[in-house]
Design brief:
Blueprint: H1 2-13, H2 18-47, H3 55-73, H4 77-83, H5 89-96, H6 109-116, H7 118-126, H8 130-150, E1 161-162, E2 168-169, H9 171-213, E3 217-225, E4 231-239, H10 241-247, H11 251-254, H12 259-267, H13 273-280, E5 284-289, E6 294-304, E7 307-314, H14 316-332, E8 342-347, E9 352-357, H15 367-370, H16 382-398, E10 401-409, E11 414-425, E12 428-435, H17 437-485, H18 492-523, E13 532-535, H19 536-550, E14 557-563, E15 571-574, H20 576-592, E16 597-607, E17 610-617, H21 651-661, E18 667-671, E19 675-683
Parallel strand pairs: 14-16
Antiparallel strand pairs: 1-2, 3-4, 3-7, 5-6, 6-7, 8-9, 8-12, 10-11, 11-12, 13-15, 16-17, 17-19, 18-19
Helix pairs in contact: 2-3, 3-4, 3-5, 5-6, 5-8, 6-8, 7-8, 8-9, 17-18, 19-20, 20-21
């Protein structure tokens, strides 16, 4: 049934994408539910079943959703969606109009607000772009403003918490918050969709270009189905130039034709294409066309549920070569088992009869050292010599191929070899020795890389667990104290403290989110450095004021600023945002790990072309063995000393990354219990002054 509904919608609205079909079905359901809700309210009001009668509101619901349904059925989807923007008329009749509202309008502001908010989700899902969300927001804002004006509550507009009824958050802020969330979500997914569309278009262009220039013949078949969704026949949808050359036919002669009608003429009835592709589904085979005197190799791939790609290769020359090679196949079969890096012939008694050797820098063998000698005399250990001898007997007796790995001491180092032994005749074997030293080194490197990857995965897992905790903590505080602010059980002074806690936790949460966004930009390599003239002392003074304010309640810690150049206009060229972020993270780190004392930051000139920044704290310090690891991403020192300090393990890593983007390197000097000093130097670049001093 669902399949038939999907097919009906696809046919009526001329869409093929599954997402478009699902979207239209969802729009139908939403509008039908709206009509049903309007009918229920209308009937309830007419029959007196509802105590809160509002016939104009019921009629508004029916008109809006009725018009939307009319537009939808007439394939005017955008029109149907935009009609829903008239929904503010509904809360007007129910809650705003003095003659029709079911509640006193000064008590029903929240009802208006929450009747408008759900439709942000509607426009997020069904709207064409972010514009519809913004337009709906403006209409909702006007509706809410009208309600507040008619309720004579305009004096509360700039108050955060409204003490009306049970009390609630400023409705304008709530509405704007929902708008911003939906707008950002819409913006994100629109950007993502545009990127995917661009990738799809590029991929399609690449595929078309590849198909056109493919040396193999290509034919695209579509599987047609009957009313019971059973495959019935094949339709030729596309061929490439190589197909036309191979079978001497033009694309327009067979394109969009039923395969049963045209392919027998092309392939002269070689086989039943319908039967082959619809039922046997053999993916690889060869056939011969007598009228062209050519052999063809066929490979089939199922592109989608109803599309099959067939590749044709002219293998006539290959077939001839196969026939010619069959005669010499047995003679060279043993030699083809391995690449003869070092080729030995050894008799049943273990004596070297002959060898072919490619000399290398690491291994040099003289013929007189090998030929005529036994495997027990050329440098193998007794255990390895016995093993090789047993393999020789096994190969000759059972006509098998044996493989042995061994190490050999050479002039420069130890080399690893793989020896493959195969029977040559009843009296001797062929031994092929391959130098696998590089392969073994690669395997070791891969193992090391695997260990590093597993460590990275472990750190990411620990980071995710930590970040979830770090996000929940401020969120719980914000939610909990927000409820307490709205409670009448607390005095204004206590509520002020609650608000301070909410703001502090909000800043903490914002910092976490900013770190996550920064990490995302770094991972996707989209972080852009924007260098410009930066008034350094203004930046430093701003940071000093910010942290001084935060430390007002911490009497044991104070912040100190030291600027070597005190001119307010002193400036140099850098990315001010990144520089401020680096210092902010370092200062915040110093405060977090210091129970008391001074956190000092500033800059100085150590070299003419460089300016050095530093942040010095009197905190717990960092062990020497950990001083490199603290800059690794997702890494936090895992010891009891810092277990009580919150954090994600991203701050110093991000700071290091920003410093390197600006042309420097972040360093640390620290001792346990003595504090830490973080320093980094940036190129001291300044804009050329239009005034020059002439001596």
């Amino acid at each position: 049934m669902l399949k038939s509904i999907s097919n009906s919608i696809a046919s009526h609205y001329h869409v093929e994408s599954r997402n478009d079909i699902v979207k239209i079905i969802g729009l139908h359901l939403f509008i039908i539910l709206g009509i049903l809700a309007g009918l229920v309210f209308f009937v309830a009001d007419l029959t007196g079943l509802s105590t809160d009668e509002c016939l104009p509101g019921d009629i508004a619901i029916l008109i809006i959703f009725g018009l939307a349904f009319y537009g939808l059925r007439n394939i005017r989807i955008s029109w149907a969606v935009n009609i829903i923007m008239l929904i503010p008329f509904v809360p007007y009749f129910f809650f705003i109009s003095k003659s029709q509202s079911i509640f006193p309008n000064y008590l029903s502001v929240q009802h208006t607000l929450w009747s408008l908010i759900p439709f942000f989700v509607f426009f997020l899902i069904f709207g064409d772009d972010k514009k519809s969300i913004s337009i709906y927001y403006l209409l909702s804002l006007l509706t809410l403003s009208l309600h507040i004006y008619m309720a004579e509550l305009t004096d509360l507009i700039f108050i955060l918490n409204w003490e009306v009824g049970a009390g609630y958050l400023n409705p304008f802020l709530t509405l704007t918050a929902f708008y911003l969330v939906t707008f950002l979500v819409a913006w994100y997914f629109t950007s993502l969709l545009n990127e995917l569309k661009s990738q799809k278009e590029n991929t399609e262009n690449l595929i078309n270009h590849t198909v056109r220039n493919l040396s193999q013949g290509m034919m695209l078949l579509e599987i047609a189905k009957d009313e019971f969704e059973t495959p019935s026949h094949l339709i030729v949808r596309k061929t490439n130039p190589a197909f036309e050359r191979l079978f001497r036919i033009t694309s327009r002669e067979i394109k969009d034709q039923i395969a049963d009608d045209v392919l027998p003429k092309v392939f002269r009835g070689t086989f039943d294409w319908n039967k082959h592709h619809l039922y046997t589904k053999k993916k690889h085979f060869t056939f011969y066309l007598d009228h062209l005197d050519r052999h063809y190799e066929v490979e089939t791939f199922k592109l989608t549920n109803n599309q099959v790609v067939i590749l044709f290769s002219d293998v006539s020359i290959k077939q001839k070569m196969i026939i010619d090679l069959e005669e010499s196949k047995h003679r060279f079969q043993v030699l083809l088992e391995a690449i003869p890096d070092i080729f030995f012939i050894i008799d049943r008694d273990g004596i070297y009869v002959d060898f072919v050797f490619k000399a290398s820098e690491s291994l040099k063998i003289k013929p007189e050292d090998i030929i005529g000698n036994s495997i027990f005399e050329v440098g193998f250990s007794e255990k390895m010599s016995s093993k090789i001898f047993q393999c020789i007997q096994q190969c000759i007796d059972s006509d098998s191929i044996e493989t042995i790995e061994y190490a050999l001491e050479v002039e420069s180092a130890t080399a690893m070899f793989e020896m493959r032994i195969a029977k040559l005749n009843d009296h001797s074997v062929i031994s092929l020795a391959r130098d696998i030293t590089k392969r073994k080194i690669t395997e070791m490197s891969l193992e090391e890389a695997k260990i590093k990857a597993e460590e990275s995965d472990r750190l990411k897992t620990a980071f995710l667990a930590n970040i979830s905790h770090e996000i929940r903590t401020p969120m719980n505080a914000i939610i909990g104290f927000s409820k307490m602010v709205g409670s009448p059980d607390f005095e204004d002074e206590e509520k002020s403290k609650f608000i301070e806690i909410i703001i502090a936790n909000g800043k903490l949460l914002l910092g976490l989110i900013n770190d996550m966004i920064s990490l995302s930009k770094i991972e996707s390599n989209t972080l852009v450095v924007r260098k410009a003239q930066c008034r350094l002392n203004e930046v430093m003074d701003s940071l000093y004021k910010e942290f001084s304010y935060e430390l007002e309640d911490k009497k044991n810690i104070r912040i100190k600023l030291n600027c070597e150049n005190t001119s307010p206009k002193f400036a140099f060229i850098t990315d001010q945002v990144l520089l401020s972020s680096i210092l902010q993270k370092l200062i915040d780190n110093g405060i977090k790990f210091s129970e008391q004392g001074v956190v000092e930051f500033g800059y100085r000139f150590n070299e003419p072309a460089w300016i050095e920044f530093y942040v010095k704290d009197s905190g717990i310090g960092i062990a020497e063995k950990d001083q490199e690891r603290i800059f690794e991403r997702f890494h936090q020192l895992d010891n009891r000393t810092i277990r009580d300090y919150e954090g994600t393990g991203l701050g110093l890593s991000l700071a290091q990354h920003y410093v390197r983007l600006l042309g420097g390197d972040l360093k640390v000097k620290s001792k346990i219990g003595k504090g830490s000093v973080f320093t980094f130097s940036l190129p001291f670049e300044r804009e050329e002054s239009p005034l020059k001093i002439v001596r």
